[in-house]
């Protein structure tokens, strides 16, 4: 919505819903400066849902007649249809989504519309709307997270035997299986899912009825509106209800960690698609080209996800700073909660969608992964463990393997390429069976315990991960 063409209502101060005590019109800049309708109109359907529940409750407790409730409900439903069709005349002069809808209701159904706001305030109304909106987004995010995890686990199962180098310090360290690496990503996402569900519990409480800050003198039924809106229960304290934004901060903290995890996976995808690594193929539909270098295929999607992590971290800090030192109860500062929250939720959802689409399409270049794993003496630890099994103390074994590696480096060979005689110079405990442990397959298969990289363990872990996902 542009600020310039917003019109449709109110030229004089008394036309504002709160205009009674004012003697001059709001300064035109102040009007725009204090308005939130440009961004809070995306909570319009939640606002209507909240109003419907509030009006129904008011009629049930006898504050509104059934007829009044009927008129209000019909009017609100017609407005919802108008909004969905894109025909609603949003007005900056009416400040925010709440007053736009209320004014529209009165212009549509007449004086009865003015009764809707009985026993509530925009303060509890906005807190209700944000919670409803965020709950909807959380459920969409949870679904995309699950779609991504299902794709990753399936890919991990297919790649349970695929050998790649495992890294520490980005140096080739020990061979692992690609399936095992993918399941590491999945673990991060499982924790994210748990955090999201935990956050949802605190989002899903109803502040409606807290009114401006102290509650209301009408005989309202807060449990009823909570129930009508699908909240678990009403919030406990009216002052806290209108000023609490912990739930938004918690959500942003979830989103920050999620994006942190996706950025780590993104970074690996960027590395692995480079010609230096060349471990995976990312289908063209997730990449773009360069306007000057014809040979280029850039991994834009993971790069952008990596980049978007910054803005989500920023939103978390914005909200923490917004709430710092705020006295009870509602302060206009809180209008600033929406844009960071909306963008954090949108970004999390978009990045998950991109990843969920991409994950099943990743193609492992198994030969390149295998060749890279074979480089860099990645089975040196296996040789040390072999010597320990033959009775050598681990520290001595470490020394022996160090000497063997140094000998191999001088001859530009890998450990497995040295002859038995060459290896035996460093320890007479080394026998012909040493070559079994120097293979990559032997190395990964030996790590055969819960959490280990052995293909059998990866398959078992995939089974457990699938059960967890199915139980959601
Ligand atoms: N637009 C406001 C917000 O987003 C709604 C609540 C306004 N309440 C008030 N007392 N001015 O926070």
TrEMBL record:
> Which pathway is this protein assigned to?
Amino-acid biosynthesis; L-arginine biosynthesis; L-arginine from L-ornithine and carbamoyl phosphate: step 3/3
Please provide the record's keywords in A-Z order: Amino-acid biosynthesis, Arginine biosynthesis, Cytoplasm, Lyase
The reply on keyword Cytoplasm is: yes
Q: Which InterPro entries match?
A: Arg_succ_lyase_C, Argininosuccinate_lyase, Fumarase/histidase_N, Fumarate_lyase_CS, Fumarate_lyase_fam, Fumarate_lyase_N, L-Aspartase-like
What are the recorded GO MF terms, alphabetically?
Answer: argininosuccinate lyase activity
Q: Which Enzyme Commission number(s) are listed?
A: 4.3.2.1
**Where would you find this protein in the cell?**
Cytoplasm
**Catalytic reaction(s) noted:** 2-(N(omega)-L-arginino)succinate = fumarate + L-arginine
Domain Argininosuccinate lyase C-terminal stretches: 377-445
Every Fumarate lyase N-terminal domain range: 20-314
Q: Which CDD domains match?
A: Argininosuccinate_lyase
Q: Which family does it belong to?
A: In the N-terminal section; belongs to the lyase 1 family. Argininosuccinate lyase subfamily.
- What protein am I looking at? Argininosuccinate lyase
Organism, by scientific name, is Microbulbifer halophilus
Name the lineage: Bacteria, Pseudomonadati, Pseudomonadota, Gammaproteobacteria, Cellvibrionales
